[in-house]
Amino acid sequence: MPSYPDIPTPLPIGNSFFDKLIENGCYYVDKTLLIKDLLDKKAEVTLFTRPRRFGKTLNQTMLKCFFEDTRELGRGVWGTGDKRTLFNGLKIEAAGEGRYMEWQGQYPVVYLSLKGAKQGSWELSYAMLKTTIMDEFRRHDYLLDDERLAEKEHYIRIMQDKGSDKDYAQSLKFLTECLEKHHNKKAIILIDEYDVPLENSWFRGFYSEMIDFIRSLFESVLKNNSYLEFAVLTGCLRVSRESIFTGLNNPKMVSIQNREYAEHFGFTQSEVETMLHYYHLEHRTEDFRSWYNGYLFGDTKVYNPWSVINAVDDLKGHPNIFLAPYWSNTSGNDIVRKLIDKADDAAKKDLETLIAGGVIQKIIHEDITYNEMEDSIDNIWNFLFFTGYLTKKNEGVDEKNR
């Protein structure tokens, strides 16, 4: 990438699909070494939790483009065609003297985003979840041409919205079984926005119905599934293992507290400086540091990528305008409202301290279910922290709870 382009590379505003971003020639902050770390660490199930707008979907679609065998996919659906050239010149191509590229295009992949389940009722949310599952069955409908597939009628029932509730609860495991029989390789599962149905159902009042379905769906495909190569899930919150990950074989949970994988979500200082140099905005470096460098993942300082990209896009034609809080306008603030409604005098004092730019001290617990959110005001502080409203200044050990 040249230092000073004659025609600046477009920024990926609102584009979370890796293949479209690369094919459209957009500016890309290279996060492909996430692939190397996943292959090196060899966890069967990895859950990444990061605040919204931190590149989770972009990374998931990057993994899909890297691992998926697309030779039989077609019929006009997204994700088809040879994806190997998308990684030309990126870090993963040279990693390990090129040996990681041997994994490219080698596996059947099941990819789901659960964000469509954010609906006003259980019936509509469940219908949208089934639609998401059916779409993935249709994406792999080449399996119906395989004479070895004895369960074609079952496959068609699920694909045509004619299956039972049990069929859909076990549908992902069934799909991995069909894929393994056809490809003679275990399947990779990628689930994005895994917690959206849970958070939405809790606020809307049908949490118990949703948790029962999601638990059954995840247990069937992620627990003791002999057709699974590995799975990666992404979301904003780590939902308690006891609520939806019951009995899974030691899933790897990676939150903003963990040091590993820290540089793969969000922009590092050097990545931001490189971007600002590329767009002739070096003189705004300190402004970006003070506005957007407020996150600490493990012990790595990172910038919010959504804010950085939007700010650079605005500054390209007007390099001296004021910066803006882009991230704060990206979704609702239901959790904040819960905090304000529940706040006692001590909590209100803490809020005033934060608004004034101060620091408060709280105990962090990662294993909290939505049902426990209102049990204590301290639980809501935890939710605010893990969803990105608050960030860590420093940490210590709570001697009373050791």
Provide a descriptive summary of the structure in words.
This protein is an alpha/beta fold. 41% of the residues lie in helices and 8% in strands. The protein contains 17 helices and 7 strands. The protein has helices at 18-23, 33-41, 56-67, 91-94, 122-139, 152-159, 165-169, 171-183, 196-204, 207-222, 241-244, 269-278, 285-292, 305-315, 334-342, 345-355, 377-386; strands spanning 45-49, 109-113, 187-192, 228-235, 252-254, 295-297, 300-302. The strands form 2 sheets. Strands 2-3-4-1-5 form a 5-stranded parallel β-sheet, sandwiched between helices. A two-stranded antiparallel ribbon has the order 6-7. Strand 6 and strand 7 (300-302) form a beta hairpin. Helix 9 (196-204) runs antiparallel to helix 10 (207-222) and helix 15 packs antiparallel against helix 17. The longest helix has 18 residues, at 122-139. The protein is globular and about 65 Å long. Residues 1-5 have low confidence and may be disordered.
What can be said about this structure in brief?
This protein is α/β, with parallel strands linked by helices and 402 residues long. It has helices at 18-23, 33-41, 56-67, 91-94, 122-139, 152-159, 165-169, 171-183, 196-204, 207-222, 241-244, 269-278, 285-292, 305-315, 334-342, 345-355, 377-386, and strands spanning 45-49, 109-113, 187-192, 228-235, 252-254, 295-297, 300-302. 41% of the residues lie in helices and 8% in strands.
